[in-house]
Write a structure and sequence with these properties.
It is a single chain. By secondary structure, the protein is mainly beta. The protein has one domain: Beta Barrel (Porin), CATH 2.40.160. Helices cover 8% and strands 68% of the residues. Strand 4 and strand 5 form a beta hairpin. The longest helix is centred in the N-terminal third of the chain and has 16 residues. It is elongated and about 60 Å long. It starts with a helix and ends with a strand.
Length: 198
């Protein structure tokens, strides 16, 4: 899979060598609606609202573009334990902060001077900087969080003059939390507003 990503990126770069390209650099911030999915029917996951902020670069190759980013993101999710005698008795809150580094390949569906409409997808590499669990359940511990994990982002975006807006879905490819009691993956909706500085 990594070889396929590399081939796609190299092909795109080769196509753009002889083409005129523009370079954008900017800041971005937005909201996350995230949850952790679990491998057990004994728990019911729910979403929490958080935030992210950082920077992006965009290499525009006419209708194609490559967009690397780096941003700080706060994510997590709540799970409720389903107990027959007292349904949804115990609530555990999983929280973790990460540095996300996506590398997106996009296509501009509409590409006008003042406005464009885009679709994009690509891998995201996440590095956990802090984690915690608020719970009364001794089976859960923040030590079971992974230090880093890999995932995918895909979504749509639009630019108007110097403003840029993205709506993306992010899914982790593997577990972000793994113990004998529970394995969890991450799903996140990201809504982002950015400003082009260059």
């Amino acid at each position: 899979m990594k070889k396929s990503i590399l081939i796609i990126l190299l092909t795109t770069l080769v196509m753009g060598v002889s083409a005129q390209y523009e370079f954008d650099l900017g800041l971005k911030a937005g909201l996350n609606n995230s949850k952790i999915t679990v491998n057990s029917d004994n728990y019911d996951p729910s979403t929490i609202l958080n935030y992210h902020f950082g920077a992006f670069a965009r290499i525009n190759l006419n209708y194609l573009y490559i967009q690397p980013e780096a941003y700080y993101s706060s994510k997590g999710g709540d799970i409720e334990e389903i107990v027959s005698s007292n349904p949804l008795q115990t609530v555990s809150s999983f929280n973790y902060d990460v540095i996300d580094v996506p590398l997106l390949l996009g296509v501009k569906i509409i590409n006008e001077e003042a406005i464009n409409l885009r679709i994009m997808a690509g891998p995201v590499f996440s590095f956990i900087t802090d984690s915690s669990i608020e719970t009364n359940d001794s089976r859960f511990s923040s030590t079971y969080f992974k230090d880093r994990f890999f995932g995918w982002q895909y979504g749509i975006g639009a630019d108007f003059l110097f403003l840029t807006f993205d709506a993306r879905i992010e899914n982790s490819a593997g577990n972000i939390y793994s113990s004998s009691a529970l394995n969890s993956k991450s799903n996140t909706l990201l809504l982002t507003l950015g400003i082009k500085l260059l």
